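Incident review: delayed structure delivery

Summary: a single-chain prediction request sat in the queue longer than the usual turnaround. Root cause was a stuck worker, restarted by the on-call engineer. No data loss occurred. The affected request and its eventual output are reproduced below so the record is complete for anyone auditing the incident later.

Affected input:
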Amino acid sequence: MFSDSAFPILNGVSVSIDALTTELRNQGHSVHLFTSAYPGHKDPDPNVFRFPAIPTPWTRGYPLAVPPFVGMLHRFRQHRYDVVHTHTPFTLGLVGLRWAQSHELPIVSTYHTLYDRYAHYIPYFPRRYVRYKIAKHTNFYYNRVDHVVTPSEASKRWLVRHSVSTPIQVIPTGVPPRLFLDRSEARRQLGMGPDQRNLLYVGRIAKEKNLEVVLEAAAAVFRACPKARLHLVGDGPHLEDCRLLARSMGIGDRVRFVGFVPRHEVDLYYAAADVFVFASVTETQGLVVQEAMTYGLPAVVVGGGGASAAVENGVNGWVCKNDSKEMAARVLSLINDESLYTGMSEGALKSVRSSSIAGMTHAVVDVYRLVLERKGTPVPDGPLAVS
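Output delivered after worker restart:
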């Protein structure tokens, strides 16, 4: 597997890669991960290979792999692989594509992110021009792989709309089973009152996450429900701007910017929360929405991106317009109506029971075998070797 983004970076791509890698190995397959070096991080996994990387002003928190790559190519050639699977179409995605082609290996690529929605991170160029170039590169890259995997119909439609003709398989990312954490104990550990109504956001604190709508909605909720609080779990380049906005709105004492939390500790915040709120329209899937539902949290999300695909209106949450007043009204409808809340909480739990990591992995392996057959390569009866 090749990816510019992997643990310890915490985002939907890295979570998906970790889940897929772990389950592939549980099913007997051999997996090597090629990714960027991260400052101070040492991998306990000997099958992780890290390219030398440097930080850049426009990719803060995401070190950029830099050539020469010949040393890592020698390591790649020390092993025999059946399939190459890339998870980003940029530096290391291009390396994976080139090495797969030169070694005549089939290549699968997962399209995780609506990359054109991140054009504001590229400095010095007009945003429209950057979005155009990203769209052109997306077309170039995904038309050169053998098969594309994407987690939602929304992202598949985007690829088709941009003339990607490669076969595309929609395989939603599976969610891990919940840890059985007692809600009252979770709240005690986090210093929350037992009668507090907790709104939760988990994800990067970044401009494209549309957090202004979440904060404005929270302010309206606080006015109607003084016991409500908002916790934002995550870090990112928009953190200070969001803090300043919360202060200027007079809600700084009821909004807690938790910052970065290790992956295994995020469950504590899910367990302590009442409602999950999410306003981003740049996601292909919005894995955190499904993770929240494993804890019985109804979700209130803005429609327009892949995140809303997990929400069935009135069953496990609400999909609202990109409007803070409507989001606040939907949140209040949940926290003010115990019967409605209980029904949606049960709906949230039911909706994620079929989204298993094992099922996702079996579907991905079926794609691997399909591309091997299409290439005329003998398909191993047993486990595969994936890079």
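Verification: The chain has two domains: 2-174+356-386, 183-351.
Action items: add queue-age alerting; document worker restart procedure.
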